TrEMBL record:
PANTHER family: STRESS-INDUCED-PHOSPHOPROTEIN 1, TPR REPEAT CONTAINING PROTEIN. It comes from the Bacteria. It comes from Pseudomonas vanderleydeniana. This is Tetratricopeptide repeat protein. Keywords: Repeat, Signal, TPR repeat. PROSITE patterns: TPR. InterPro entries: TPR-like_helical_dom_sf, TPR_rpt. The keyword tRNA processing does not apply. GO terms for molecular function: Hsp90 protein binding. Transmembrane segments: none annotated. Residues 1-21 form the signal peptide.
Length: 391
């Protein structure tokens, strides 16, 4: 009798779980080879207070997770595979296609991956910089190329910069080709589009398309001549040929054109500070992976948090993630302010220079040692300048 009761209880629990559980099919592709399925990728669904749901993609790059918690922005999907950068993205994730990026070797390389939902069918990536508009009609440019073009929904669309040219600004935008003659369309805003930016071994920035907006052009970010990443995240309605998207965003290639700062609530600022403190504790404890994750979370909440960027640069550098360390240090330079601004900028330039010197990129190293010296006199900088000049 006791065993029958126990069996009945287990049956009821299983039935309740099966009612609540939801199938979450996901597809994983290569970001750089069109339609290449990624097998044996580890896929993890995570939510605070819940047990992780894990799976592995099959030969077709597909996996179906059985989740008992909501498929919304409170859940994170994490995709890992050796030789590729980890992908971390907010849900909704059901029936979505994700593309993972092979690790990049170039210190000044950059990869931008666009994915979206079923509609609209054709979203186009545009990377615009002096003399170049990289998109589906001009797939190659100066140290840049469109790796993958997609015209039937989901993506990916991928643009890779082999080397960012110092002193030149870059603007990345997404154009809704399907609705190119409908400036008031909301399909782009409702597309669940996401833009993933990779450097070195890591995903360094993620952008989610603003919702409830009219327009067919999403201008996402700018990299200044000094390499500072600036979020733009604006919508506009245009009625132009794709080649003329260049004209719509090219004024932003002038770094003197100000980008409106994104307002950060006091709550978000406080949460970011708390995460930064936790990151510092993890760093001191030698847990570099956790410290990097915490500093990244702080920056996601407050992208103007200079101290978090400075800390992130140190953690990346100690972990051997040198391309990412350069990116974080450049942002620390851009955000430096107050009485310590010159010291912060000098230190950050020096850190960048050391990375370049260790990589044998001596002209880049010399430039940044000299930039450090411009900010603050230090015999260490003088010694470094002479050392690199004699290479």
């Amino acid at each position: 009798m006791h065993l029958l009761r126990m069996a009945s209880v287990f049956s009821l629990c299983a039935a309740a779980w099966s009612v609540q559980a939801e199938s979450l099919p996901v597809e994983v592709l290569s970001a750089v080879v069109k339609d290449q399925k990624i097998a044996d990728a580890d896929v993890l669904l995570q939510r605070n207070g819940e047990q992780n749901v894990v799976g592995k993609t099959n030969a077709q790059g597909q996996v179906t997770l059985q989740s008992s918690f909501p498929d919304d922005a409170g859940s994170l999907l994490i995709i890992k595979k050796s030789g590729y950068s980890n992908l971390v993205v907010k849900c909704p994730c059901k029936d979505m296609t994700y593309a993972i990026s092979p690790v990049m070797q170039n210190l000044d390389g950059l990869r931008v991956v666009l994915t979206w939902g079923k509609t609209p069918a054709d979203l186009d990536s545009h990377m615009i910089f002096p003399g170049n508009n990289i998109y589906f009609e001009q797939k190659q440019g100066a140290d840049a190329n469109l790796d993958v073009d997609d015209v039937d929904g989901y993506g990916p669309e991928t643009i890779t910069l082999q080397k960012k040219h110092y002193g030149e600004s870059y603007v990345y935008a997404v154009h809704d080709f399907t609705n190119s003659e409908n400036p008031g369309s909301r399909q782009l805003s409702n597309s669940q589009a996401k833009v993933f930016v990779y450097m070195g071994q890591s995903l360094v920035r993620t952008y989610y398309v603003p919702t409830n907006r009219s327009g067919n052009l999403w201008t996402v970010f700018r990299m200044t001549g000094n390499g500072d990443f600036q979020d733009i995240n604006t919508f506009s309605g245009v009625n132009v040929h794709p080649a003329n998207v260049l004209n719509e965003v090219s004024p932003l290639l002038d770094d003197k054109v100000a980008i409106a700062e994104v307002a950060v609530s006091s709550t978000a600022q406080a949460d970011a500070r708390a995460l930064n403190v936790k990151g510092e504790a993890a760093y001191k404890a030698g847990d570099l992976e956790q410290s990097i994750a915490l500093f990244r979370q702080a920056i996601d909440l407050n992208n103007s948090f200079g101290q978090a960027y400075s800390n992130l640069g140190l953690a990346y550098q100690k972990a051997g993630n040198t391309a990412e360390a350069i990116w974080a240090n450049r942002k620390a330079v851009a955000l430096a302010s107050g009485n310590s601004a010159n010291t912060v900028r000098a230190s950050s330039y020096y850190n960048i220079a050391r990375i370049y010197e260790n990589a044998g990129q001596f002209s880049d190293a010399l430039r940044h040692y000299e930039l450090a010296k411009e900010q603050k006199a230090n015999p260490v900088y003088d010694t470094a300048i002479e050392r690199v000049k004699n290479r």
